[in-house]
TrEMBL record:
This is SDR family oxidoreductase. Belongs to the short-chain dehydrogenases/reductases (SDR) family. It holds the Pfam family adh_short. Keywords: Oxidoreductase. One of its GO terms (molecular function) is oxidoreductase activity. PANTHER family: DEHYDROGENASES, SHORT CHAIN (PTHR45024), SCP2 DOMAIN-CONTAINING PROTEIN (PTHR45024:SF2).
Amino acid sequence: MDFTGKTAIVTGGARGLGLSYVRALAQAGARVVISDIGADTVGAGRDATVAQAAAEALQAQGLTVIGHGGDLSSDDSCRQLISTTIEAFGQLDILIHNAGWVGYQNIADLDAAFLQRAMDINLYAPLWLCKHAWPHLLRSSAPRIILTTSDRAMYAQYEQTGLVAYSAGKMAQLGIMNALGHEGAQAGILVNAISPVAKTRMWGVTEEPDELKPEWVTPGVVFLASAHCKDTGYILRASNGQFTATRLTENPGVDYPRDLARIKAGTAEEVAAMWDSIKQAHPLT
């Protein structure tokens, strides 16, 4: 795929999945801003040299990239990233919010600082970034936003104890995807999400993995960022070089909000009696 003339931002772009996305887009001709705070594996600290070193390594390969070491936890810092991009390249076509942090804290121990850190990266950052990117995306011929969710949040069988804050943030990004996909539809701003599985430093993996490689997720992200993608509101699950796209889809025959086309019940007792039928959705067509 050819991204010549396109400009992209990849948050969390200096390592792991993000760096793989950056490299692929840049090799395809895009100009890419690598945004990465340079935090450690527990989400603490800040090191601007991490983004700069990643940029210099790719620049040495002849790729057009720049580094940005800013914190994205505030409206102003996200505005500054978008401004940096426009100053450097004059436009913005693709926004990929890959930055993330996996922290464990049981609900009984949940504290404000821990929750705030999870919300900063998973809720506030994508909202502020999209706010400031929006006017520039409106001028793009193929504007794309890609957010990041997680199978661990979406599917109960993959959940882990202690991921309540993480899961809340990852599910929030699906709400953002749906809302902005609707808001941007007329202007052609397509908003999708990637749900990647990859062995990176977030897993404590420091050597090249023999499975679940980050680069095996990248083709799906590159597609979502491209003009070849014509859909919005999809979650692309990616693992071990395999892909499946899903979305939150209504049952057939629904006339929302007055008719759910499902089981009628007038009392709690009737709900209880019909529960086995109520909890089984119609098969999707």
